[in-house]
Amino acid sequence: MRLFTSTLLVAGTLAATALSLAPTGASAEGARDGANAGAASPLYGVTIPEGYRAWQLVAPAQEAAPLDELRAIVGNTTAIKAYQAGTLPFPDGTVLVKLAWKHTQSPEFATASVPGAATTVQIMVKDSKRYAATGGWGFGRFVNGQPADQAQHETCWGCHQALVADRDYVFTRYAP
Ligand code: HEC
């Protein structure tokens, strides 16, 4: 599929130079990301940014079955400033993180939905030079702090490129 060709082309160059966003280690994210935090995603070399669990909320999201998840998209200071100013494209240094949990019913209240087990942490990092072949974005998908395989990372750019090119490849709007 044509969409993925550029991702594959960029693979060689990116794999050689793993991007290190910031040192990661034991922190508040420990329970979610396990002992593996620090490993880089294939193709892009994106790592889990330290302290993301305390970042500001951009918006929540819900994913229907079969995944059936609750999600929260958070951003670093650069991301939040860009959202608030309506800046497009997002400037270099923007980092967006999507946290996801299984959607479960509150044990105390039948109609309330609450987060269950943590599932994935997904990351987009803006670096217009390094990731020129993928709209300036590097992608990372992690489960228990461990990056998903290359095949999964080959899907990221295709979907974001196809559906939200007019918003710098970012789906999430800032929730009021
Ligand atoms: C088939 C479509 C599709 C694919 C493939 C996909 N995404 Fe997304 N992504 C979405 C949608 C839709 C959202 C909006 C939030 C939501 O519904 O969870 C999103 C949101 C995001 C966000 C929050 C910023 C934004 O654009 O809203 C990040 C970060 C992200 N995805 C990372 C990834 C990574 C990393 C991969 C590859 C491992 C990936 N995505 C693959 C559809 C996709």
TrEMBL record:
Note the coiled coil stretches, chain numbering. none
Under the heading Gene3D superfamilies, the entry gives: Cytochrome P460
InterPro entries, A to Z: Cytochrome_P460, Cytochrome_P460_sp
Matches recorded under CDD domains: cyt_P460_Mc-like
Signal peptide positions (record): 1-28
Keywords in alphabetical order = Signal
Location of the Cytochrome P460 domain: 49-172
Q: What is this protein called?
A: Cytochrome P460
Species source reads: Nitrospirillum amazonense
